[in-house]
Amino acid sequence: MSKIIDGKEYAQILNTNLKNSIEQLKAKRKPKLIIIQIGNNLASNKYIKNKLKACQKVGIIGELKKFDENISEKNLKKEIEKINKDLLVDGLIVQLPLPSHIDEKEITNFISPLKDVDGFNALTLGNIMLNNSKIYPATPLGILKLLEWKNIDLSGKNVVIIGRSNIVGKPLTNMLINKSATVTTCNTKTKKIEEVCKKADILISAAGAANLVTKKFVNKNMIVIDVGANFLNGKYSGDVKFDEVSKIVKYITPVPGGVGPMTIACLLQNTFILYKEKENIS
Fold first, then answer.
1. Active site includes 51?
2. 32, 37, 90, 95: which one is catalytic?
3. Domain extent for 54
4. How many domains does the chain contain in total?
C-alpha cells in the first residue's frame, strides 16, 4: 500500500491554527461568512452543512441564506448587492451549481472581489494568473498545501491535470506554473490520455468521472491527487480506482478524506484573510 496523504488530518491542523489566530486577536467582532443557496440540491446541502460546521469550530460566524430555485437572476443580484455592501460580512459564497435560468459567470462576477472567498471572480482569477493574489480558489489551494505538507517540491515536476474547469483545472494550472512546474492539462478530447498521464510525476484528476484513472494511467513513482466527488451506486467515490491505483503509486489522496476537507479549511483561511484586510489587521 502506498502512502496515503490524509487531507482530514492536515485540515484539522490548519483549522486548529486558524481557531487560535482568531482567538488571539480578541477583536470586537468575529469574521463572518455568508453562504447563498438556491433550491435544494442534495449534494449542496451536504457541502454547506460541512462548511457551516467548520465555521463554528474555528470561530467564524457562518450564515446560510436559502432562496427558492425559481428566484430570478435580477433578484439574486439584489441579495448579493446587499451582502457586498454589508461591512460586517467578510466572505460570500454562492453555492454552485445554480439553476439553469441563472448565469453562473454573471453571478460569480457580481460578488465583490473583497468578499470572494471562493476565488471565482474574474478579477481574482486574473490576479492568480499574474501571481498577484492574496486569495486562491479553495480546492487548488488545498492541493498545493497538501503537497507542501509532504515536502514535495513542485519546481521542475511534470504535472498532469485531468479537467479544465474554472473552479479547479484552470486556476490550478496557473498556480502550478507559478511554482515552476511543467503542466499538461488534459480534457475529454486529449488523445492517448493514459500515455500522457503515465509520464507524470504528479497526476491530479478533477474530471468528475468515477473510476476514470486506472493502473494504465500511473507509474510507481507518481503522486496521485483525486479531486473527484462522484456518487456511484449510492456511494461517494473519486475519479481514481483507489484499490487498484493505491497498490502502485508513491502517494495518493483518498476519497473521502483527501482534498474535500482541505477545500473547506482553505475557504475558512480565505475568509480570515479578507477579514484582516477589512479590519486592517496585519
1. yes
2. 95
3. 30-112
4. 2
